[in-house]
Design goal:
Largest sheet: none
Oligomer: single chain
CATH topology: Growth Hormone, Chain: A
Structural class: mainly alpha
Shape: globular
Radius of gyration: 20 Å
Strand content: under 5%
CATH superfamily: MFS general substrate transporter like domains
Amino acid sequence: MRVRAYRWWVVSQVLSASGGATQAVAQSWLVLHLTHSAFLLALTATATFTPLLLASAWAGSLADRFDRRKVLVITQSLYIGLGVALGALLVAGAVQVWMLFVFAFANGCVSAVDSPSRQVFVLELVGTDSVASAIGFNEVVINASRVLGPALGGVLLATVGFATCFFVNAASYLPPLGVVVVLLWRRGWAHLPPAQEDRGPGRVRKGLAFAWRNPAIRYSMLMAVAAGMLFNMGTTLPLMATRAYHMGAGGYGAMMATFGGGAVFGALIASSGPPWPSGQRVRGLAALTGVVVCLGAASPRVGLFFAGLALAGFLSIWFIALANALVQLRTEPGLRGRVMGVWTMALPGSTPITSLLVGGVATWAGRAAGARDAFALPGVALLLTAALAWRSLSDRGESARLVAPVDVAAATTAPAI
């Protein structure tokens, strides 16, 4: 937070992430309201995240080759346009279910490019010595939005309807767009240069191969896939609210906010930890998260479920922030954009597959039991992946915590706005 530009970026991210969470609540509730189908609710997530699964590794190569600021100007502008267009369709009364799938897919296409560029941009702002703390604090931003966004979404749904939620989301991307534009045109700031090598064919394959060859990175990606099922609350929590505990939109929003509230504290712990993340801690926290999720799914009382949600949010974000930092710091600088593209494929890009799995379990296992089984599924997956990763994340023989240092801090000395 000593870097002024990073402070401005964090504030803008709180606003845009909260707007995105507001839209996510409205979109999930709108699909369920129009279709009453758990499977179609899961299909919405599939439409959103399929582009991240298929294109994020390629999009990550853009973050290695081009100025991240210019890429972010384009993506923030596209987010604004999509939010305004969908809100206008709702105001006109012309929206249909298939349109929601189209807009979900379009947002996913933008996110495939935005996510790896955004993650490398944070390193560009603070330098390698502070990147682990910045990643942890970024999780504070994301999970503060899980409190603010659903709360705002619930209020807007109850008072003024769906369309306003989408307009609010569009407006929330104006601050980050302004921050990036100012940094883009500010002279004298030496940003992290794009990689000059790997201009020929096979760029994406090199990033995939690097992630696969490194066992710690490979298993961190696998645990990220399992965590993605947990973070896909738009599929599981509406079912838990309506089928397991017989609650309405307010209950769903409260569940989202409870998970986000716990996650904020987990992210704060992650951001205040040591600069070099421990693989042992990553695997231990992943396993503990799995246990808590499974116990929460079996909770007979709604109060116990809310307590489990808060604890699951705390542990899961602590673990995923450490895993993200581990992947970045053990990746060669020239490959970071592509490897973070692979990370985006894992989380949240794997959601098209995992959401269909979760939706299928919820549909075929019955109403209340299906909702509980679907919520427990990511807990089981986290336990299995943590067991598989146990040896690779032992930190034995980890002699070089940062693969190839780069003097980013010198190039990003307190850029002012």
